[in-house]
Design goal:
With about 200 residues, the protein is mainly α. It has ten helices and no strands. It folds into two domains: about 55 residues, Homeodomain-like (Arc Repressor Mutant, subunit A, Orthogonal Bundle); about 120 residues, Tetracycline Repressor, domain 2, CATH 1.10.357. Helix 5 packs antiparallel against helix 6 and helix 6 packs parallel to helix 9. About 20% of the residues are buried. Pfam families: TetR_N. Keywords: DNA-binding, Transcription, Transcription regulation.
Length: about 200
């Protein structure tokens, strides 16, 4: 049986580390960072607190490791989304790819789209870095799609805010914020905000 104490003892350090990060993420996703205490994490992971400290140093170290792992996952998914080709329009294709990413790893995206209570400074730094990266991408794509558009920087910010809101709706209310509905809306807004020239 995989959940037996013997099976837990045989887990490699790498696998144990991932398991603790998974457990921590589940707690944070459900109740916020403040709820992810060493005792709760250790109990949920079936380990002792010394094992947790051995692998992560301390609780802030564990939180940083979690943010780093989820940031890497989100960055890889964003890179895939920008390469996603379901439409000749790269902005729409990217949005479709981001919807796929949110559906594939909703807990990852809840972490970044709805930062939980007690989030470490590392998370907010990563969010700021990611936002700048996305805004640069959007501005470049907008300038390519509509050469000479007035104020491409703020247009990118408006597109970013709208896209973020729609991805949040997908996470909060997927039965109403269906993929078809959101993509149809993005297509409509795309022609309204960024008309072909």
């Amino acid at each position: 049986m995989t959940g037996s104490p013997n099976a837990r003892r045989r887990m490699s350090a790498v696998d144990r580390r991932e398991q603790i990060l998974d457990v921590t993420h589940e707690i944070v996703d459900a109740d916020g960072f403040h709820a992810a205490t060493p005792n709760r994490i250790a109990e949920a992971a079936g380990i002792t607190r010394p094992v947790l400290y051995q692998l992560f140093g301390d609780l802030p170290g564990l939180f940083v490791a979690l943010v780093d792992r989820e940031s890497e996952r989100a960055s890889a998914q964003f890179a895939r989304a920008t390469a996603h080709q379901v439409d000749e329009d790269r902005l729409i294709s990217t949005f479709c790819g981001m919807l796929d990413a949110v559906d594939e790893h909703p807990a990852t995206w809840r972490l970044f789209l709805f930062p939980p209570q007690g989030a470490p400074p590392q998370l907010h730094r990563r969010l700021a870095e990611s936002e700048e990266l996305v805004l640069r991408f959007l501005q470049q794509e907008i300038e390519k799609a509509v050469p000479g558009i007035p104020d491409p920087e703020y247009t990118a910010r408006m597109v970013h805010a709208s896209g973020r809101e729609l991805l949040q709706r997908r996470l909060v209310d997927p039965s109403r914020a269906t993929t078809d509905r959101l993509i149809a809306l993005v297509r409509h807004v795309r022609t309204w905000v960024l008309p072909a020239r």
